[in-house]
Design goal:
627 residues, alpha+beta, Nucleotidyltransferase, domain 5, seven-stranded mixed β-sheet, five-stranded mixed β-sheet, 19 helices, 43% helix, extended, disordered C terminus
Length: 627
């Protein structure tokens, strides 16, 4: 048995619900219910039964659906078993139907028990795990709310009227309004909204006991207990046979879990969890709507979708899903009732799965951190790692990127980029061996790394921020030496390493030969993630700077010249060269340009004339000393 399966079971929530053992191909082997998912699933590892041992020999994964109580778990278990027909559940299931209570439609509705759930306009309650439970609730409601019992209305009263268990609409012993109120109160009870009735029964019971009418008090006590059982019913079946997906999203940082509960034919038949990333700057409802659009692009869109969305987002999603379905779709954001409870179940499962995902990431990160500590021989685990990489575009727009990892995962709030200040883009600093990139242009990687490291930790010391446990630079011994000299200039002795791309060799100070770790070593994989993230961040910033340099114009530096006036000048003189050749008097004839503004344009262009028309660029570099 895989140790990973035991770990996954150990991270199951301690909630009631249904668990699904699966094989290596994702096929469901067994479905069971539990009051405590973790405890129940863990017990399978110590069960000596031959059938359980055969099951666990094939089990490679476990999934779950959390619910609110054991009754919900029981009904959901049976629904999923009948739908999936797992191999090891065959002896535990049969074709038994589960009973419902139904408030019939039409004039003078009556309350009946049925084993068939059909779309006939009636209001259904259940299913119940056994026939006695349904019969008991029916008896309680019949005592409390005397609806008619007869299948067809007789023309005279019957025994039920004489014993006070029927209000007898057959002989007009009540008005239609009185009967309608009785039906409404019955529906409230079936929907779990019977607080007023419960208080009334309790008050009658206490009054009867105070007056020594103990037989009446006992009868009312039994009614009270029965009513409490009704109010604690499960909620896993809807009031109508609709196909609906219930969606909920739980986000932490830029990671989110979406859970879809699938209702088919009025029953929950399964769930689908999804992990989303890159949500840091997006509202949860907008992210959920965007996910649903993409999810249903190549899937069948159900008739109804329930999700926690604002009105504007809901309306937009509903319109898009109608186009995808080619028919009517209703997107709901219920606030009360059965549909709201379903939404709460979906939200609970999303939250629990997020906790599992966070724990998985923490374990993965901490496992790699501990492996890296052993590989590099560090005194403490490198929980905080900062990585540097130098990027450029054909020798121009050189940037040094800094990324920060904490417990093996990116901490994007600690990312920085540095535009080189002391390192020329086209010349190599005297006495330093640089690297040649592109055609005829050279970038001094060593000096760039040294400048970035120096600026970073000078700022850290100035602010009193905590120092990292490990500094990683992209490159070989030369980059490592440059970073070490920069730290020494600040009086710092931080743990250092460099990672060379070609052979993925790890260089550390004081070691003659590089470390060559296995490709599947978690320590090497963590270093690669830090290095690759720094490279990605640096390349993104270089591209932004290059784009700004292409689109920038010397006219942008003229106070009073905005996009419209710049466009007017360029159009009037057929480009920037024409504007440079024009006089202030010529420019003043352009609509919107007065003589004073024209003179400022001439002055700025003359000051920039030595750059051979190349656009000036303005940077937004991070200065660690002031950041």
């Amino acid at each position: 048995m895989a140790a990973g399966l035991r770990q996954k079971v150990s991270r199951l929530p301690r909630e009631p619900g249904v668990y699904l053992w699966k094989d290596g191909h994702g096929e469901t082997l067994y479905i069971g219910k539990a009051v405590d998912l973790r405890a129940r699933a863990s017990s399978y590892f110590n069960d000596p039964a031959a059938k359980t041992q055969r099951l666990m020999e094939q089990a490679a994964d476990i999934d779950f659906i959390a619910v609110r109580n054991e009754k919900e778990a029981l009904v959901l278990e049976q629904t999923l078993i009948k739908r999936n027909k797992p191999r090891y559940n065959i002896r535990l299931t049969d074709d038994k139907s589960y009973p419902y209570l139904k408030l019939t439609s039409g004039p003078y509705p009556r309350l009946v028990k049925t084993f068939r759930y059909v779309d006939d306009g009636g209001t259904y309650f259940g299913p119940f795990p056994d026939g006695y439970g349904a019969f008991h609730v029916l008896q309680v409601l019949s005592d409390l709310l005397p609806l008619r019992r007869c299948r067809t209305l007789p023309k005279h009263k019957c025994l039920y009227y004489d014993i006070g268990k029927c209000i007898a609409p057959c002989i007009a012993a009540c008005t239609d309004e009185e009967y309608a109120l009785l039906v409404a109160e019955t529906k409230d009870i079936l929907k779990g909204q019977a607080a007023g009735l419960a208080r009334r029964v309790k008050n009658d019971m206490e009054r009867a006991a105070a007056e020594h009418r103990f037989e009446d008090a006992a009868r009312l006590r039994d009614q009270m207990r029965g009513l409490e059982g009704v109010l604690e019913r499960q909620h896993m079946t809807a009031d109508s046979l609709e196909d609906r997906d219930v969606a909920a999203l739980h986000a932490r940082g830029d990671v989110a879990i979406v859970v879809l509960l699938h209702q088919r034919g009025g029953k929950i038949v399964g769930q689908s969890p999804f992990t989303l990333r890159g949500l840091a700057d997006q509202a949860p409802d907008g992210a959920l709507a965007e996910f649903l659009r993409g999810h249903y692009t190549d899937r069948t869109v159900p008739r109804h979708v329930a999700a926690e969305l604002t009105e504007a987002v809901r309306a937009g999603l509903e319109s898009d899903l109608r186009l995808l379905r080619g028919g009517a779709v209703t997107v709901e954001s219920p606030r009360r009732g059965e549909k709201r409870r379903w939404l709460e179940v979906a939200a609970q499962n999303a939250r629990l799965r997020m906790e599992q995902e966070q724990e998985r990431l923490r374990r993965r990160g901490m496992g790699a951190v501990e492996a890296l500590q052993a590989a590099l021989g560090l005194e403490v685990p490198p929980r905080a790692i900062e990585g540097f990489d130098v990027s450029h575009q054909a020798g121009r727009h050189t940037r040094a990127a800094l990324v920060r990892f904490v417990d093996g995962e990116p901490d994007k709030g600690g990312y920085r980029t540095f535009g080189m200040r002391t390192v020329g883009e086209t010349a190599v600093r005297a006495g330093t061996a640089g690297a040649t990139h592109g055609r005829g242009r050279e970038v001094d990687d060593y000096a760039s790394i040294a400048e970035a490291v120096l600026r970073r930790y000078r700022g850290v010391l100035g602010r009193g921020d905590p120092l990292p446990d490990l500094v990683l630079v992209d490159g070989g011994p030369g980059q490592l030496r440059a970073a070490r000299e920069a730290l020494a200039a600040l009086g710092l002795d931080l743990r250092l390493a460099s990672l060379a791309k070609r052979e993925e060799e790890v260089f550390v100070p004081g070691r003659l030969h590089p470390l060559r770790l296995r490709r599947d070593d978690p320590a090497l994989q963590l270093l690669q993630r830090v290095r690759d993230e720094a490279h990605r961040s640096g390349i993104r910033q270089v591209r932004r700077k290059a784009t700004r340099s292409v689109t920038a114009s010397p006219l942008d530096d003229v106070p009073g010249i905005g996009p419209k006036k710049r466009a007017a000048l360029l159009k009037a003189f057929a480009g920037l060269a024409g504007v440079r050749a024009a006089s202030a008097e010529d420019m003043a004839r352009v609509p919107g340009i007065d003589h004073a503004l024209a003179e400022r344009v001439v002055e700025v262009l003359q000051a920039n004339g030595g750059e051979d028309g190349r656009a000036r660029t303005r940077t937004g570099d991070h200065d660690e000393a002031a950041a």
